[in-house]
Design brief:
With 277 residues, the chain is mainly alpha-helical. The protein contains 8 helices and 6 strands. It is extended. The termini are far apart.
Length: 277
């Protein structure tokens, strides 16, 4: 029995270096793989901008949302839709009901059938969603040199960095660096994956005229439309924050009340003495 124990110990001792070596090789391979993944990015990460709506107690800037919708309507809507946002969603956020109705009536929507069974075009209503300017994907690709303009309803949720990414992309157009060839119909933007983007620079100084007198610089327009798209991705954010504040306040009051009641209820029992004679 002693010899068997000695043999097992010897075998275990000889196997330990091999196990340690295997573990070391595996750890090294995992480390190198992770470093390769971390260094394989082909685009710049967007910087963090000081958005006014990011704080737990802060809300969206209604004026910026209104200006951002103007930029979207006059610049972005030529290629991109907002299929998850209806005109009624704009009411009370950045437009009055009358203004939103007027915006909707500027668009025509296919409806029907009528009494004769025919489809017809009608002015938009508050319940209509902001559709894409293209009838289908093939038409969109044909009009954009093979590229498909994404719907912008959830773009700030669909892209890493959210509004920071959108803002950086809009102001990030540059001349390509030396040695980088950009094909015809493509543009260089270091914030876009791969650096080569088919969307031409959409925003320039003075591209729109703000009704509130704000200077329409390229950076201001990019900031406003990024705020607008952050709102379209989470139109319920302000209400959710208000509800959360009410819930947390109510729970805090309930917790204090429960603690006081517990001490008041149990204090006579916990403080009494029982003596045995």
């Amino acid at each position: 029995a002693v010899s068997c124990m000695q043999q097992r110990s010897a075998m275990l001792g000889s196997a330990l270096p091999k196990i340690a070596a295997a573990v070391g090789l595996g750890s090294g391979a995992l480390y190198l793989t992770s470093k390769k993944a971390a260094c394989s990015g082909d685009n710049m990460h967007a910087p963090h901008f000081p958005w006014s709506h990011n704080g737990p107690m802060s809300a969206f800037d209604a004026g910026s949302i209104r200006r951002g919708h103007l930029v979207y309507a006059q610049v972005c809507a030529a290629c991109h839709g907002l299929k998850k946002i209806a005109f009624r969603n704009l009411v009370g956020v950045c437009y009055t009901e009358t203004e939103a109705k007027e915006l909707a009536m500027e668009k025509e929507y296919l409806d029907g059938p009528d009494d004769t069974g025919e489809m017809f075009d009608r002015p938009g209503k508050l319940s209509d969603y902001i559709r894409s300017p293209y009838r289908n994907e093939n038409e969109a690709r044909y009009a954009n040199n093979g590229g498909l303009p994404p719907d912008l309803s959830l773009i700030c949720k669909a892209r890493h960095g959210g509004a920071d990414y959108v803002m950086a992309l809009l102001i990030g157009y540059r001349d390509p660096p030396a040695g980088v060839a950009v094909a015809e119909g493509q543009y260089w933007n270091p914030y876009f994956p791969g650096g080569k983007i088919q969307m031409p620079q959409p925003i320039y100084d003075g591209g729109v005229e703000y009704e509130d007198g704000t200077e329409a610089s390229a950076s201001q327009m990019s900031k406003d439309v990024s705020t607008f798209l952050a709102w379209t991705a989470e139109p319920e954010q302000d209400e959710r924050k208000r509800t959360g504040l009410k819930v947390v306040t109510g729970l805090a009051i309930a917790a204090v009340s429960a603690m006081w009641y517990k001490r008041f209820l149990w204090s006579p029992i916990k403080s009494r003495k029982i003596s045995f004679h």
